[in-house]
């Protein structure tokens, strides 16, 4: 474990310094302010590079908010850094190899968001199949009296669901969809014998035998564009894509093209390849449900995240094991 001992010359009673480069939520700010001295870059009149230089010798812990990129250049500016704590479950915005090389420990949000994201994935799927958002727009625009009944949707029960990534989120999705009577198959880095679902060793094969693909895996070099044109072709013109993982898991341009051509049945997307930018072609399409990367956000998860983040930071500064340590490459 990286050492967090107090730098020479600093009284032991001082609150540990914590660097933040983006504003946290009000709730997290309140929790952290009571325990740590918060160094807020956005409140300083100095440019970021000079702000970092002014604290470079002392800062040992960095809190990452909203997928701020932690790369070699940032780490170069913080030579005393020994801990990076991110408020996200995913860590694709952090250069883990560089952290490992420099002896910097990393912690994430662990499973705090798993149930929320799983619920949201199911919600997106029901919305796409039953056209809930589209029906809402139909009524609000006053079209019902003139246009009559809205076109039929499709039921969720018995849909064959393929889950890409049967981790903490994917397994929660599977559990919920199984209750609807959906046969569950999955692709993951390895077979998960603790689960009663069918393992498929190829994403294309999984798509070929599924009505729905739910994406719940981490974004890595290996999973970038894991849903490509071949997988979409295998899924077919009636297939549904639900993405609550990361936008770049999908070849977004290819997905948009196929949605416009009617070569994919629909999509529920909470994440996007270049967010917050969203392909404008999707704005007027009724078989696509869009949301601004909020699957994990509830009052309950926000409270849990505050407590977990504070606990991880306190563990680091007390030289105790981290609660949600991220495995670093050797």
UniProtKB/TrEMBL annotation:
Keywords: NAD, NADP, Oxidoreductase. It comes from Musa acuminata subsp. malaccensis. PANTHER family: 2-HYDROXYACID DEHYDROGENASE-RELATED (PTHR10996), D-ISOMER SPECIFIC 2-HYDROXYACID DEHYDROGENASE FAMILY PROTEIN-RELATED (PTHR10996:SF179). Pfam families: 2-Hacid_dh (PF00389), 2-Hacid_dh_C (PF02826). PROSITE patterns: D_2_HYDROXYACID_DH_1. Gene3D superfamilies: NAD(P)-binding Rossmann-like Domain (3.40.50.720). InterPro entries: D-isomer_2-hydroxyacid_DH, D-isomer_2_OHA_DH_cat_dom, D-isomer_DH_CS1, D-isomer_DH_NAD-bd, NAD(P)-bd_dom_sf. It comes from the Eukaryota. This is (wild Malaysian banana) hypothetical protein. Residues 52-326 form the D-isomer specific 2-hydroxyacid dehydrogenase catalytic domain.
């Amino acid at each position: 474990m990286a050492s967090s001992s107090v730098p020479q010359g600093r009284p032991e009673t001082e609150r540990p310094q914590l660097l933040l480069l983006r504003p946290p939520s009000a709730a997290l700010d309140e929790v952290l302010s009571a325990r740590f001295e918060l160094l807020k870059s956005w409140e300083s009149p100095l440019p970021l590079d000079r702000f970092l230089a002014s604290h470079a010798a002392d800062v040992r812990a960095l809190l990452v908010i909203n997928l701020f990129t932690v790369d070699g250049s940032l780490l170069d500016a913080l030579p005393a850094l020994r801990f990076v704590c991110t408020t996200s479950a995913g860590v694709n915005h952090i250069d883990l190899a560089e952290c490992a090389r420099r002896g910097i420990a990393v912690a994430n949000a662990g499973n705090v968001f798993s149930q929320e994201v799983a619920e949201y994935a199911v919600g997106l799927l029901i919305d796409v199949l039953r056209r809930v958002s589209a029906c809402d727009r139909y009524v609000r625009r006053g079209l019902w009296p003139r246009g009559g009944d809205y076109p039929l949707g499709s039921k969720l029960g018995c849909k064959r669901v393929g889950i890409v990534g049967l981790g903490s989120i994917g397994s929660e999705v599977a559990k919920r969809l199984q209750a609807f009577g959906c046969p569950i198959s999955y692709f993951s880095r390895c077979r998960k014998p603790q689960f009663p679902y069918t393992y498929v060793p190829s994403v294309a094969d999984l798509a070929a035998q599924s009505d729905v693909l739910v994406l719940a895996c981490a974004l890595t070099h290996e999973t970038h564009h894991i849903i490509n044109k071949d997988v979409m072709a295998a899924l077919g013109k009636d297939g549904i894509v639900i993405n609550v993982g990361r936008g770049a898991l999908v070849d977004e341009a290819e997905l948009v093209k196929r949605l416009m051509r009617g070569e994919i049945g629909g999509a529920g997307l909470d994440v996007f390849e270049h967010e917050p930018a969203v392909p404008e072609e999707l704005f007027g399409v009724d078989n696509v449900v869009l949301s601004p990367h909020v699957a994990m956000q509830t009052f309950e998860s926000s409270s849990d995240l505050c407590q977990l983040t504070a606990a991880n930071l306190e563990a680091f500064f007390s030289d105790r094991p981290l609660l949600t340590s991220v495995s670093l490459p050797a």
